[in-house]
Each structure stands twice: as structure tokens, then as C-alpha cells.
Design goal:
Distance between the termini: 19 Å
Largest sheet: 5 strands, mixed
Helix content: 25-40%
Radius of gyration: 20 Å
CATH superfamily of the largest domain: ATPase, nucleotide binding domain
Strand content: 15-25%
Strand order of the largest sheet: 3-2-1-4-8
CATH architecture of the largest domain: 2-Layer Sandwich
Length: 313
């Protein structure tokens, strides 16, 4: 049975899947990255995991995978197949695509984790059917993926979609990127958690606790939450003005608050629209499987179009 290997590498763990010619997920697996042993050990873990998946495919389906793809965090040169830098994994300038291709003996694609997740959301998730979409992940930081006609734009240097570093509060909170007032310093899950911990006096409080307090109409929580929503709306309207997306897909930890986030966010963006066309604003649909499904799409894009169908979530 023809199939591809898909790998999604995170800071501490890896998710993987084998995806068949009909787009169905045939096998799923997880494994630790082993980052505590250093960057070389992480690369070895990825190569070993991929090789084990190849062998599983041979045993289970009678033939090796036809292609593979891996999504990784950090700075990624997708065109040249190089994992340029990832702070959490400690690596620099790893020719990951070439090393995987050598190990597996098949075509391999390399993708950026958020852009790869955005690709999946755009093709088979919440943005399905939209010719132009923007995927925004609200996690520890904020990152985005710009979708155009079924593909995701990487940019000339691999930085397209970094909406988290749009300055929304000039002269504001310092950001590790070197600027002040970046969006992710106000509207990421980490930023909301920090603001709520300070407002509530509970050092262990996080964004989920803040969302629950908002539902209970706690005035301090409402203030913290609205501050984040307003910053996010300012960032999104900048993106809407530049990109004119048909759909905004919002994912990540903060989006798990559901309508506690989406109801005020839609209204805040609507208030900021002047000449722009208001896009649909929808929650991401694929959860933590988006990166792996996106990697499967990248792998399947390496095959002859007559040999593939769309991936099934």
C-alpha cells in the first residue's frame, strides 16, 4: 500500500503518522526528542524514528514509504532543507532534509512547524475552501502562516507570517526579538497568564484560569482579557490590511477558551474595519494533530499528482 511518513517535532516530543494513498491516517506514533542529551541526540532521534516508521510500513503494508516530511520549530530554510536554528532543541544549520533522504532513500520535505500546521488547517481544517487564509497560533508566543491557493508562503528569507512581532504598543514591553511592544508580549497565552498571575496575586495562575474567571465575570480578569483581545485585534487588523485574507484561523492554547475569546475578538476586529473586508474568524479544527497532518501534505506534494488524494483529518 502506497503511503508517506509524516513527522512533527516539538520541543520535547515528536508525533508521527503513516498516511495512505487515499489520504487516510494508517498509523500514529509518539516519541521523546531526547533534547536533554543535546542537539546531536535530537537529530539522531528524528532519524531513528523515521527509520522505524519506514520499517513499520514495510512490515504492515508490504512496501516502504514513497516520501516523507518533517516539521520542526525555529528558523527553517525550507527551500534548501536546512533547520537553521531552534533555541529549544539547541541546533544550528542542520541539513535535516538531506540526512533524512539519505537515511530513508526517498524524497523528503522539510517544513516550519507553524507554517506546516497552517497548511493543514488551510487545506483540510478550518480554512478549507478558502483561497486566502491566515492561520495564527496563540501559544507561548504568537506565530502565523499565510495561505495562498493551497500553499503556505515562507517568504524570501523564511520569516513570513511572524505576526507575533508586529508592534502593537510602541515603546511597550521589551520583547526578546529586540523590539518593544510586540503583539506576543500582550496577546499570547504566556502573556495573558503572566498578566493574570500579577492581577490575581496567584503566581501559578495561567491563561486558562483567567478565561474561567472571565466567565465568572471577575472584573480584574475581564480587564486583563480585554487588554489582550484589543492587542490581538490591533495585530490582526494590520494583517488583514496587508494580506486581505478570506478567513482568519485562530489556534493555540488561548483559542481553547472558545467563545470566551472569539465573541469579543470578532467584535473588536469588526470595530477596527474601515475600508477592509471583514474576514471570517474561526477556531482551528485540527488541534495538536495539525503539524503532523501538514507534514503528510508536504510529503504527498512530492509525489506525482495522479498518485495522491487529500489527507483526511
Amino acid at each position: 500500500m502506497r503511503h508517506v511518513i509524516a513527522l512533527d517535532v516539538g520541543g520535547t516530543g515528536m508525533k508521527a503518522a503513516l498516511v495512505g494513498a487515499d489520504g487516510a491516517v494508517l498509523h500514529r506514533a509518539r516519541r521523546a526528542t531526547g533534547r536533554e542529551r543535546g542537539p546531536d541526540a535530537v537529530v539522531d532521534a528524528i532519524l531513528g524514528f523515521a527509520a522505524d516508521l519506514r520499517e513499520h510500513g514495510v512490515r504492515q503494508f508490504g512496501e516502504p514509504a514513497s516520501a516523507a516530511a518533517v516539521a520542526v520549530p525555529g528558523i527553517v530554510d525550507e527551500a534548501n532543507g536546512v533547520a537553521v536554528y531552534a533555541a529549544n532543541l539547541g541546533w544550528r544549520d542542520v541539513p535535516l532534509r538531506a540526512r533524512l533522504a539519505e537515511r530513508l532513500g526517498i524524497p523528503v520535505a522539510l517544513g516550519h512547524d507553524v507554517r506546516t500546521g497552517g497548511l493543514a488547517e488551510g487545506r483540510v481544517g478550518a480554512g478549507r475552501g478558502a483561497d486566502r487564509f491566515l492561520f495564527v497560533a496563540l501559544g507561548t508566543g504568537i506565530a502565523g502562516a499565510i495561505g495562498v491557493d493551497g500553499r503556505v508562503e515562507a517568504g524570501a528569507h523564511g520569516f513570513a507570517g511572524e505576526i507575533g512581532h508586529i508592534v502593537v504598543r510602541p515603546g511597550g514591553i521589551p520583547c526578546p526579538c529586540g523590539q518593544r511592544g510586540c503583539l506576543e508580549r500582550y496577546a499570547s497565552a504566556a502573556a495573558v497568564g503572566q498578566a493574570w498571575a500579577a492581577a490575581s496575586g496567584d503566581p501559578d495562575a495561567d491563561a486558562a484560569h483567567c478565561a474561567k474567571a472571565v466567565v465568572s465575570a471577575d472584573p480584574d480578569a475581564v480587564r486583563v482579557w480585554q487588554h489582550a483581545v484589543d492587542a490581538l485585534a490591533d495585530g490582526l487588523i494590520t494583517a488583514v490590511t496587508l494580506l486581505d485574507p478570506r478567513t482568519l484561523v485562530i489556534g493555540g492554547g488561548l483559542a481553547e477558551a472558545g467563545e470566551t475569546l472569539f465573541t469579543p475578538l470578532r467584535e473588536a476586529v469588526r470595530r477596527r474595519v474601515t475600508f477592509q473586508t471583514l474576514p471570517r474568524i474561526v477556531p482551528a479544527a485540527l488541534g495538536d494533530s495539525a503539524g503532523c497532518l501538514g507534514a503528510a501534505l508536504l510529503a504527498r506534494d512530492l509525489l506525482d499528482p495522479t498518485d495522491r488524494t487529500e489527507v483526511t483529518p
